[in-house]
Model the fold of this input.
Amino acid sequence: MNRPPADAPLGLFGGTFDPIHNGHLRLAEEAREALALAGVCFIPAGNPPHRNAPRTPAGHRLEMVRRAIAGNPAFSCDDGEVRGTGRSYTVLTLERLRAAHGDRPLVLLLGADAFAGLATWHRWREITGLAHVAVATRAGHASDALPTALREALGDRIGDDPAALRAAPAGAIVRFDMTPLAISATEIRAMLGNGRSPRYLLPDSVVDYIAAHSLYGHT
Done:
């Protein structure tokens, strides 16, 4: 299989990853193939602003990501948000990565639900000036279902051609299809808390790390 050149667009995949699971990994892999990305960089959140504090300390979540992606040379991990002391605002992370990568195309990977809520994010109108956005969609998820403010601001930029991601460093919004996997970090945490095995929902390396550190009530 031909690999994209090293300077091809780089995918950026943020999340609490509490814990990272096979649904996260499959989304990243399908995005890499569908969008011809050079790779995908996972960015564990340190102190996310849109939800309660993660159940697990950032250091553990970072290590679980590192272990989960260790076997895939196209995957990498950025610890900038974990090392930070303030809120993990996406726009600040993108500013930092844009400064580091110059004019290389950067592609923020989002699920359809996260994209629909983009207008509630800190300095959200600046995000597409710093990176492209790729939206993982399922059948029936279309741009006309977006909130009015988001549709009016971005509707004419939403398309389906991955070539738009290579034409400029930022600015495009591209949808790509993904295989729906009903795997939930919330349900995995509950499963572990009830003493049930999460094996085959998570990489074995993550299952073993959770057991070794007695995370989520698992002993």
